[in-house]
Prior knowledge:
The chain is mainly alpha-helical. The protein has a single domain, classed as Double Clp-N motif, CATH 1.10.1780. Helices cover 60% and strands 2% of the residues. It has a two-stranded parallel ribbon with strand order 1-2. Helix 1 crosses helix 8 and helix 7 crosses helix 8. It is globular.
Amino acid sequence: MFERFTEDARSVVEGAVEQCERSGAQTVDAEHLLLALMDRGAGKGAFALAALGLAERAESVAGALEEARRRVGLSQAEADALAGLGIDVAEIVSRVEEAHGVGAMAGDQKDRGWWGGHRSFSQGAKDVLEKSLRIAVARRDRRIGDEHILLALTARPGVAAEVLADHGVTYESVTRVLYGGGEAKTG
C-alpha cells in the first residue's frame, strides 16, 4: 500500500515513526500520525489544518494528546463513561504516577516492543492508514495523500479524532476546506 502514497503522505508516516521514537513509545499510534501531520508545513493536509487554525493551537493539541497518553490512550469520552461507573481515571493515574513516576501508566520504556530498528504500528494507526486508502478510493484519487490521512484521523473514533474535534477540526470542516470551495467554520 505504501507505494500508493504521495511524497507528502510518506513524509507523514515517516514523521510518525520519528514522533514515536522521540516519545519512547513502543508502537506508532494514530496520535503520532496527527503530530507528524501537524509538523509538516507542506501538503494538502497541512494546508487544511492551517486553514482551520490548528497551526496556532499546536501546543494545545500536543497537550491534549499527552493527557490522553497519560490515561493509557483512553479518550475523554471513555474516561467519562468509566466515571459514570464510579471509576475515576484521573485518580488512578495520579496514584500510579505518585508511586511510580509521571508516565508510568503510558509504558514509556525505550527500546521495548520492537526489533531490528523498526517500530511496529498499532492497530489504531493501521486502521487510520487503511481508512485513508478507502477515502482516496471513494474520492477516485489515484494516490493516497496527507489530506486522506487527515480525513481518516477525523473519521475514525479515538483520541486523535476527539482532540481534533475539540479544536474544531472535523471530517466535515476538512472536507469543506479541501473540496468545498468555501470557507470552513471551526467551533
